[in-house]
Design goal:
Strand order of the largest sheet of chain B: 6-7-8-3-9-10
Shape of chain C: globular
Order of helices and strands of chain B: EEEHEEEHHHHEHEHEEHHEHEEEEEEE
Helix content of chain B: 25-40%
Order of helices and strands of chain C: HHHHHHHHHHHH
CATH topology of chain C: MetI-like fold
CATH class of the largest domain in chain B: Alpha Beta
Chains: A mainly alpha (about 290), B alpha+beta (about 325), C mainly alpha (about 270)
Distance between the termini of chain B: 41 Å
Number of domains of chain B: 2
CATH architecture of the largest domain in chain B: 3-Layer(aba) Sandwich
CATH superfamily of chain C: MetI-like
Strand content of chain C: under 5%
Oligomer: heterotrimer
Number of strands of chain C: 0
Radius of gyration of chain B: 24 Å
CATH superfamily of the largest domain in chain B: P-loop containing nucleotide triphosphate hydrolases
Strand content of chain B: 25-35%
Number of helices of chain C: 12
Number of domains of chain C: 1
Largest interface: A-C, 93 and 90 residues
């Protein structure tokens, strides 16, 4: 009796597996070790958790950690709520609906560096178009990127500008999957528009919500390009995030410390995203 | 218990007129079935009564009051959808009580009414389950429960049995008829299945292409179909309908005779033909006779007749059971 | 359309014009101005239209660095995407068709690939040991490694819609595994392949972070890096800076115009259960 060879051979997985393991898994596991060392890419001197202690001691490192969380929560939270509202608006049959969807989504595809550079020009405290326009309305525009208290939040605004389209488009797909019967049944029961939104739409659009929250949280925690293009983490380090900290330490040659930053980011993502996904999936909606 | 009156109802989608001049009365407490092939307008008519769609012309009255243009929730109707529309994230209890909770009724009141409804439909032991943990028949009962709890003047059913398999369907037909007897409510029921119409209705409305072909009690439609369409639609197997030469011979445009109203003989008869196809169903046997001048004559006879393909037979219509249409 | 729908639409359009369209208009008109005109940073039409001259100046800057960057970016994008499609389809295929204990592990790796931030310095260390650091080939392999998770996910769910009967008919006809994959399955994957190509191409073309880490050096410039470097170069020449941004924005725009549907489909995969 010959064993039938499967038409779906394991070796199909091989090329992808080799590349993935060598260039992704190996570095990830290695990072756990190297984060505990002082390293110059050739020699690694074991120093225990000294790198991590530094991270929680140096103000500019702590700031990066805190900023990362603020940035992620703000962008993710806004995208989740605003994205759904926009999606509802853009599926309600208003005039120029198709064009509006395109306009909202296009920034998602544009170079982040390009957006960052343009935004920093527009946000120039005196000559930037935004403050010039505000001055025309009699409002004294703030130092968007020059005020340390404001810089991070200005970048959050640009991030939202660029990314809201993706959340909206995902929600639009989710909304399309809700059968009109649910709304009709609610209409017969006398539901108001508000009730329809909170008691029919929101529960039934959950798969899309999960996707948006997860994607935007992970993206927000890992965000680098926009921040680097707009402020390099400044003024000072008021808009530094973990990703920019990792790069700065790398540039300065502190490879061990930089890698520790990577591990912290890794743990942070795990700590936030995994419980969230588990919580979402426990309240499972079977459509 | 309320009557429903439709007066001169018309419906257009843009420039396409799909319905015109429909007049119809459903008496209080009646079980009225709208039946017809796909696209005949039966669902559209039901949805206009519910208020989910607006009529382009005409008026609708429920319980003597005009409801044309009134929101569905204010018409005193309740609807059971083909897909049941049970909210997957809510339990049976919450689904049934959904409407009351929207109206912000006190919790105790909702609790009590849900319990009563569940008792009527034997759902009491399922109240804390979610729809995905229910069988097809159970889900349907929950959908009915959601309608009952509204205490409506009229119940509207939109092809509720289409998603069930055959054996379950016949059981649910019986349960729905029983429910009607128990509640005594006015029920309007849409289906494409003439068996459901015949077995459940007090009154049948046959629709075709946006027009009412005939309204009447099941046996009236069976014995005296007003048009060839109704004649061919009601009754299974379908009535034999012939046009052309043979109809001319009988003095009309269309001539019809039901398969069960044909007598067979080996010796003499009006038509002579060869058996070309036999379907044995056990209690009945359906024969397809190849008669010259006719496309095919379908005859129904008893189950254990010793007839084989190729046999030559004579067939004659039973007197008084022939139908002719000009 | 009701009156309300019309009014809401008009309002939304006005708002979106200010928020979304204005910035792009600003980029365009500034890119067409002279140096002095552009330095004023006003939202006015160019006094003199210098679109072509500015374009030439940007292209010629630093010894035609932009052209080199375009070349490098294109090579990286094409090679990476081609292999991503091939390898992603192969894994997605086995993952969907074959039920085995390994599947759980592969799924876990896919999820890890989506979530875990790459450990950059250790990756440089690995690349150096392999002699791939600062090479285009190295960059290509990196893009493949980082893009596999998403591609596998897309292919897997699409292959789920191809009936197994087709595989089995081919097996009865005597086809070997490779033949089944290339001659039966792959041709049927055209829609999702287009989506993967389009989405990944835009992502890799727009990638700044990875070339920054793994491909430093003059000969290796990619388009985004060039844009970044020219920021200091063109510090007082806003017209050239925005022309540069315009040039970098155009390729994805063209792709978007032709493949809008596929892009949206790819990015919403997973939004609806199934």
């Amino acid at each position: 009796m010959t064993t039938r060879k499967s038409p779906y051979p394991y070796w199909f997985v091989l090329p992808a597996a080799v590349i993935f393991i060598v260039l992704f898994m190996v570095p990830t596991f290695a990072s756990l070790w190297f984060s505990l060392t002082r390293w110059d890419l050739v020699n690694a001197e074991f120093i225990g958790v000294e790198n991590y202690r530094q991270f929680f001691r140096e103000p500019f490192l702590i700031q990066g950690l805190v900023n990362t969380i603020i940035y992620a929560v703000l962008t993710s939270g806004t995208k989740t709520v605003l994205g759904l509202l926009l999606a509802v608006l853009l599926t309600s049959g208003i005039w120029a609906q198709g064009f509006l969807r395109t306009v909202v989504f296009f920034p998602v595809l544009v170079s982040t560096i390009g957006v960052g550079i343009t935004s920093s020009v527009l946000m120039h405290p005196t000559r930037g178009l935004i403050n010039v326009a505000l001055a025309g309305l009699g409002i004294h525009g703030p130092g968007w990127l020059t005020d340390p208290a404001l810089a991070l939040y200005s970048i959050v605004l640009v991030d939202l500008w660029k990314g809201i389209g993706l959340a909206t488009v995902i929600y639009i797909a989710g909304l399309a999957s809700i059968s009109p019967d649910y709304y009709e049944a609610a209409r017969i029961d006398g539901a108001t528009r508000r009730q329809m939104f909170f008691r029919v739409t929101v529960p039934l659009v959950k798969p899309a919500t999960i996707t948006v929250v997860t994607l935007s949280l992970i993206g927000g925690l890992r965000s680098f390009d926009l921040i680097w293009a707009m402020t390099r983490g400044g003024p000072g380090f008021s808009s530094d995030v973990l990703a920019s900290v990792i790069y700065k330490q790398y540039q300065a040659g502190f490879y061990g410390l930089s890698t520790a930053g990577n591990v912290i980011l890794f743990i942070l993502i795990g700590l936030i995203v995994l419980p969230l996904t588990a919580w979402f999936n426990r309240k499972e909606v079977d459509l | 218990m309320s009557s429903v009156v439709l007066s001169n109802i018309g419906k257009s989608f843009g420039s396409l007129e799909v319905m015109k001049g429909v007049d119809l009365t459903v008496e209080a407490g009646e079980f009225c079935v709208f039946v017809g092939p796909s696209g005949c307008g039966k669902s559209t008519l039901l949805r206009m009564i519910s208020g989910l769609e607006t009529s382009s012309a005409g008026q609708i009255f429920i319980d003597g009051k005009e409801v044309t243009g009134v929101e569905p929730s204010a018409r005193g109707i309740a609807m059971v959808f083909q897909s049941y529309a049970l909210y997957p994230h809510l339990t049976v209890r919450e689904n049934i009580g959904f409407g009351l909770s929207l109206a912000r009724r006190p919790k105790a009141e909702i609790e009590e009414k849900v319990k009563q409804t569940a008792d009527i439909l034997q759902l009491s032991h399922l109240l804390d389950r979610k729809p995905k943990a229910l069988s097809g028949g159970q889900r349907q009962r929950v959908a009915i429960g959601r309608a009952i709890i509204r205490n409506p003047k009229v119940f509207l059913f939109d092809e509720p049995l289409s998603n069930l398999d055959a054996s379950l369907r016949s059981q649910m037909r019986f349960e729905l008829t029983e429910l009607h007897a128990k509640l005594g409510a006015t029920m309007i029921y849409v289906t494409h299945d003439q068996v459901e119409a015949m077995t459940m209705a007090d009154k049948i409305v046959v629709l075709n292409g946006g027009r009412i072909e005939q309204i009447g009690a099941p046996m009236t439609l069976y014995n005296h179909p007003a048009t060839p369409f109704v004649a061919g639609f009601i009754g299974s197997p379908k009535m034999n309908l012939f046009e052309g030469e043979i109809a001319e011979r009988e003095g009309c445009r269309t001539y019809g005779i039901r398969p069960e109203h044909i007598v067979l003989s080996t010796m003499q008869g009006k038509w002579q033909g060869v058996v070309k196809h036999i379907e044995r169903l056990g209690a009945d046997t359906i024969l397809h006779l190849d008669v010259s001048g006719l496309p095919s004559l379908v005859v129904r006879t008893d189950g254990d007749r010793p007839i084989a393909v190729g046999k030559m037979l004579f067939a004659s219509p039973v007197a008084g059971k022939e139908h002719s249409y000009v | 359309m009701t009156r309300r729908q019309l009014y809401t639409g008009v309002t939304a359009l006005a708002a979106s014009a200010v928020i979304f369209i204005l910035p792009f208009l600003f980029i365009f008109i500034t890119a067409a101005k002279t140096k002095q005109d552009a330095a004023r940073l006003t939202f006015t039409l160019p006094a003199e239209w210098r679109l072509w001259d500015n374009l030439m100046e940007v292209v010629e800057a630093r010894n035609y660095m932009l052209l080199l960057a375009y070349f490098n970016s294109t090579v990286i994008t094409v090679a990476s995407v081609a292999l991503l499609v091939l390898f992603g389809a192969m894994v997605g295929y086995v993952l969907q068709r074959r039920s085995s204990a390994w599947n759980k592990l592969i799924y876990a790796c896919v999820l890890a690939g989506l979530m875990i931030p790459p450990a950059v310095v250790p990756t440089i260390w690995v690349l150096q040991s392999l002699g791939l650091f600062k090479t285009i080939s190295g960059m290509i392999l990196i893009q493949i490694a980082y893009g596999l998770a998403f591609s596998i996910l897309l292919f897997r769910s699409f292959i789920a819609t191809i009936p197994r009967d087709l595989d089995e008919a081919a097996i009865i006809d005597g086809a070997k595994p490779l033949q089944i994959f290339f001659r039966v399955i792959l041709p049927l994957l055209k829609p999702v392949t287009v989506t993967v190509i389009v989405v990944q191409s835009i992502a890799i073309f727009n990638d700044f972070t990875n070339p920054l880490y793994y491909l430093p050096g003059r000969e290796n410039v990619t388009v985004q890096l060039t844009l970044y470097n020219f920021q200091s170069q063109f510090q007082t020449q806003f017209n050239l800076l925005f022309m540069n941004i315009l040039l970098v924005t155009i390729p994805p725009l063209i792709v978007f115009i032709f493949f809008n549907r596929q892009i949206v489909a790819g990015m919403t995969a997973g939004a609806v259960k199934g």
